[in-house]
């Protein structure tokens, strides 16, 4: 996969600055309740959630935070491809008790940034993500990292993303300009709201400007 971690390769670019703005906005979204466990999702596949998650994770790590990205997309995982690391073992192994969590967390080339890849694709992703073991794992991880980002499956095709929204401090929905359908986005937001998910906002991806490709953070969806 082509290296899409712009925040690592070109930290002075307009794209990197957009991610720093996202970092600031999320930090001040809810001052009373600190957001340390964040879900990043989308309506459907192909809207850039994994790329956004990776770049956001780099930006957080560059600020001095100890950050973990967990690939919770147990159907079409992408994080291991973006960081060019092995996915032989990962989250699915830990959840079924095959491996210990600390042996599966991998270093990246970015200081302070770590990754727990998805591991082998299981036959029952929803059941695994909705398990007691998953909740216990996330709680234990929060004791070791300043910020945890869950790269979540999209909301529309399966229930996985809705399940994860119940265990995080907040959810960000990625919107790909020009490809995300308005009806799909509305259904996504409605589904999250119905189960009481804490929606922090949306990130507009693939929007064109004079500076080129960038991301833009919106506080709320209307």
From TrEMBL:
Coiled-coil intervals, chain numbering: none
GO molecular function, one term: non-membrane spanning protein tyrosine kinase activity
Protein's UniProt name: non-specific protein-tyrosine kinase
Origin: domain of life: Bacteria
UniProt lineage: Bacteria, Bacillati, Bacillota, Clostridia, Eubacteriales
Catalytic activity: L-tyrosyl-[protein] + ATP = O-phospho-L-tyrosyl-[protein] + ADP + H(+)
Entry EC number(s): 2.7.10.2
PANTHER family in UniProt: FERRIC ENTEROBACTIN TRANSPORT PROTEIN FEPE, TYROSINE-PROTEIN KINASE
InterPro entries per record: AAA_dom, Bact_polysacc_biosynth/exp, P-loop_NTPase, Wzc-like_C
Residue intervals of the AAA domain: 46-178
Keyword Coiled coil annotated: no
Similarity comment text for this entry: Belongs to the CpsD/CapB family.
Keywords: ATP-binding, Kinase, Nucleotide-binding, Transferase, Tyrosine-protein kinase
Any one of the GO CC terms: plasma membrane
